[in-house]
């Protein structure tokens, strides 16, 4: 549990308004709810808030088990980003206690997603993602959007494109109800999967539109998460549109390889390296 009173007292002591504290991080409404102990924002959002106040996480977390759970969830996020699903599941297994419905949804999403790619048991994944939708009771939040998007992924992997489209086509409208700046990691995760969907459907214009939006968003938030995968998809789109590795396509391929190396995304390093070797931009 987060000590909202501690955050409120520190903010007032520093002479900072709720709006100023929220600027560039979240909404004023979220700060208000946080100070009333009515919400616990994601770990990255909370970290930015307390850093602006000159506090440490230990200063505002009342329950150490809750703090430990959030740290494990954040670590599992990073493993999932790099497709290290065994490590993600191992990390999730260390969690003893989940503090609220949001942490429960976060945990179930990561576990379902990791097991899906580890075992390719898509039937089990359908159950898990639908369970998240039921848990959230039809409310539109980041986890309902994630579950909807991943249901599309499941059907895309099963080559049931009509069913995949049913879910993917809902996602852009659902995102309009979310403050994307509050969920940088998840927003880029969703866009990564949306662009893959539009690429496979050969809707290159729509794919390019989202890729441009994602790149701008990533640059604005100074984050490298998923950018290697997004650059790789951009390279494929340009290649397939023009039927060859154009200068721009190679540029995105090289950027994808560079960011993959930086984030240690071994799967993407392998994919980009194979193409770059083939076209003579990397030594064999």
Automatic annotation (TrEMBL):
Q: Name one GO molecular function term.
A: DNA binding
Pfam family of this protein, just one? Answer: HTH_3
SUPFAM superfamilies for this protein: lambda repressor-like DNA-binding domains, TPR-like
CDD domains xrefs: HTH_XRE
- InterPro entries hit by this protein: Cro/C1-type_HTH, Lambda_DNA-bd_dom_sf, TPR-like_helical_dom_sf
Provide the leader sequence positions.
none
Domain HTH cro/C1-type, first and last residues per copy = 7-60
* Descriptive protein name: XRE family transcriptional regulator
């Amino acid at each position: 549990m987060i000590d909202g009173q501690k955050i409120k007292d520190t903010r007032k002591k520093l002479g900072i308004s709720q709006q100023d504290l929220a600027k560039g991080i979240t909404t004023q409404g979220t700060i208000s709810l946080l100070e009333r102990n009515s919400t616990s924002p994601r770990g990255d959002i909370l970290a930015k808030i307390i850093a602006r106040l000159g506090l440490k996480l230990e200063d505002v977390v009342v329950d150490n088990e809750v703090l430990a759970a959030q740290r494990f969830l954040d670590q599992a996020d990073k493993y999932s980003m790099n497709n290290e699903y065994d490590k993600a599941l191992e990390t999730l297994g260390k969690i003893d206690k989940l503090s609220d419905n949001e942490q429960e949804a976060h945990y179930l999403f990561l576990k379902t997603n990791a097991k899906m790619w580890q075992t390719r048991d898509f039937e089990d994944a359908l159950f898990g993602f639908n369970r998240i939708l039921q848990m959230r009771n039809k409310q539109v939040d980041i986890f309902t959007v994630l579950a909807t998007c991943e249901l599309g992924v499941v059907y895309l992997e099963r080559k049931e494109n009509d069913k995949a489209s049913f879910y993917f086509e809902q996602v852009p409208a659902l995102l309009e109800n979310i403050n994307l700046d509050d969920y940088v990691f998840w927003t880029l995760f969703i866009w990564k999967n949306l662009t893959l969907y539009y690429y496979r459907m050969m809707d290159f214009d729509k794919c390019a539109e989202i890729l441009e939006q994602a790149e701008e968003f990533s640059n604005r938030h100074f984050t490298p998460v998923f950018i290697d995968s997004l650059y790789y998809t951009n390279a494929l789109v340009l290649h397939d549109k023009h039927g060859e590795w154009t200068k721009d396509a190679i540029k995105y391929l090289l950027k994808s390889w560079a960011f993959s190396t930086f984030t240690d995304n071994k799967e993407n390093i392998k994919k980009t390296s194979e193409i770059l070797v083939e076209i003579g931009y990397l030594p064999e």
